[in-house]
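Late entry, evening session. Most of the bench is empty. Finally got around to the prediction I had been postponing all week. Sequence below, unchanged from the version circulated by S.P.
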Amino acid sequence: MCFTLTKVKQKGAANYHLHMPVYRYKLVNWISFTLEVLIKFAVTIKSKFKKYNKLKKSIFYHAGCPVCVSAEQDIVTLIGEDNVEIVHLGAEKGRIDEAEKAGIKSVPALVTPNGNVLHINFGASIEDVKA
């Protein structure tokens, strides 16, 4: 057996001591430390993965015109409300620069999670939305 249990008498009470070879003690400590590090790493990766997934939605940009509203309804039906963020550039003028950086030339347009821009129909150019 790897471990030995010895009974030690001390002033009327019996105590038991667990004796383990030094190399086994070091191995147990190393395994314990390694598991602790792996658990911390897994927790960190999981939290970063959650952040990454939250950012990885499709983004649908539109200007509120009838063509855009119709396309919005179709996109939400196809992709699902939880998987797409709707941005009304007529109401959120501050996000026009974000749309231009993504590569949007006209609305309605959909930016996929991997960054591809899909221009849907033609409602208005991004320059018209700026004005």
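Two things to note before I forget:
The chain has two domains: 4-54, 56-130.
The first strand starts at residue 4 and ends at 10.
Will write this up properly tomorrow.
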